[in-house]
Amino acid sequence: MKVSLSRTWRVSKGLAYREPVVTLPALKRARRSTVVLKYTMAVSGLIMVGYLLLHMYGNLKVFAGQDGFDEYAHHLRTFGEPMLPHEGLLWIVRVVLLAAVVLHVYSAVRLAVRDRKAAGYKNGTRYHSKQNRRGVQRSYATFTLRWGGLVIALFIVYHLLHLTGNQIHPGGASDSPYERVVNGFEIWWVYLSYVVAMLAVGFHLWHGIWSAFTSLGQNRADTRRGSRLTALAWVLTLVIVVGFLLPPTAIFFFGLGS
Amino acid sequence: MRIFIRAWRQKNAEAEGKMVTYALDGVSEHMSFLEMLDVLNEQLTFEGEDPIAFDSDCREGICGMCGIVINGLAHGPEVTTTCQLHMRSFKDGDHIDIEPWRAKAFPVIKDLVVDRGAFDRIIQAGGYISAPTGSAPEANAAPVAKHDADDAFSAATCIACGACVAACPNGSAMLFTAAKVTHLGLLPQGQPERDSRVINMVAQHDAEGFGGCTNIGECTASCPKGIPLSTIARLNRDLLGALSRGEA
Ligand code: HEM
Ligand code: FES
Fold it and tell me: Which of A56, A79, A214, B225 might form a disulfide with A243, Cβ 3.0–4.6 angstroms?
C-alpha cells in the first residue's frame, strides 16, 4: 500500500481511501465555516432589508409634491445638526450599508465558488440525465439568487450614478431631487430597468428573508408552506416591491409631477 | 416491459467514465429497482461484459447503503430509497438514466459506487456521546419533552445514504450533519458534548469539501426519511450558541 500525502488529502493508492489533512483546530475552522459565511450573508442581507424599508418610505414622499420631497431630502442631510455634522446621518447609514454590501458580496462569491466545486461538476456537467433538471421542488427564486444578485449589484451602481451622485441624468439635470426623479421616470427605459431591478429584488427577498432567518437558526417549521416565516417573507417582499414601484408608476403612467 | 437503461460506466476512481445504454426485456413491474439491475447484470455477465457495480445491503430501506441518481433525482421519482423503489414507477419503453451520487467529497470508486467515508469522518468528529449509558434507565428519571423526543427520533432515522448531498445543487451535507447534531443534542445524554459536537462536526463537514447550505430544500425533498429543513436551522442555532461560548 502506497500512502501519498498531498497538501490537502491523505490518499492510499490501491485502497479507495482518502481523508482530508487539516492543520487548524476545529474551533478555528468552525469560525471560518460555510455556516458562519451564511450568518454573514443573513445579517448583512437583513441590514439591507431594513434600509430598503426606510428608503421606500422616503420615496413615497414623492406623493407629497415637490416641496415635501425636496424638504425631506434636505432634512436627511441636516438631521441631527449641530450634534452631527452636515450629512452626518447619511454618512453613518452609507458606511453601514457599504460594509453590509461588501460583506454580502464577499460571502456570496466565496460560497458560490466553493459550492460549484463541491457539487462535483466534471467538464461542466454534474448529472448527464436531461430529466428533472429543475429538481424536485425548488422555486424560481432559488435559481436566481446569484444571477439576480448580480442584476441588483449592477442596478445599484446605475442607480447611485443617477439619483445619488447626479453623474448621469436621463431626462434632464436639476438641482431639485424631485425634478430629477420625475424627469428620469418619464422615460420608458429608465422605468423599465427599475421594474426589472425591483422584480430581481422581489425574488431575492422572497427566498432571502426566509432563508436569512433559517440561516440564523430561527426557523422551527417543518415545512415552508404555511409557516409564519413564509408569511413574513411574503409581506415584507410585497411591501418593498409595491412600495418602490408606486412612485415611478405614478410618474410614468399617471403623469405625477408633470 | 422493455426498458432502456443509460448507465454511468467508470472502471475505477482514475478512469474517465461515460454513459452507456442497454436494452432490457421482461422487466416486471413488481421488481424492485435493484432487482431490475440484478437482471441486467446477469444479462451483461452472460454477454461477457462487466456487470454494473452498485451498492446495496439490506434492501429494505433501513441501512442507507444503496443510492443511485435516477433520471436526475437522488433515489429516483418516489420519496424512498433506491432499494424500495419499484419498477411500477416506470412504464414500458422508458429510458432510465442512472448515475452515481455526484460530489467532490464522494469520489466515484466504480460505476455507481462512491466513497462515502466523508460521512464516517463527520460522525467520528462528534456524532457520539461519551457518557456511559449502561442499561436502559428508568423511564421517568430524566423527563424529555414529547416534541423533543419526537424531533430527536425523527432526526435519528437518518440512514446516512447521502441523497441530500446528491440532490443539493451545492453538494452540501448540511442535512446529514444537522440530523446527527440534532438527534443527540435534543436528549439529556447528548448535553455534555453539545457545543464541541456541533463545532467539530461542522469543521469536519467543511474539511471534507462539501458545499454550503442555501436553504433551497432539495435535500429534504429527496430524503427517504423526510428529515425536515428545520433540522438545519437547529444546527445553525446550535453553532451560533457554541461559537458565542467559544470553546470546542
Ligand atoms: C449587491 C448584490 C447582491 C448579491 C451579489 C447578492 C447575492 C446573494 C446570494 C448569492 C445569496 C444566496 C447566498 C447563499 O445562500 O449561499 C444571497 C442571499 C441573501 N440576500 Fe443577497 N445579494 C445582493 C444584494 C442583496 C440586497 C440588496 C439584499 C437586501 C435588500 C439582499 C438580501 C439577501 C438576503 C436576506 C439573503 C439571504 C441570506 C441567507 O440565506 O442567509 N441581497 N444574496
Ligand atoms: S439497501 Fe439498505 S437502504 Fe437500500
Answer: A56
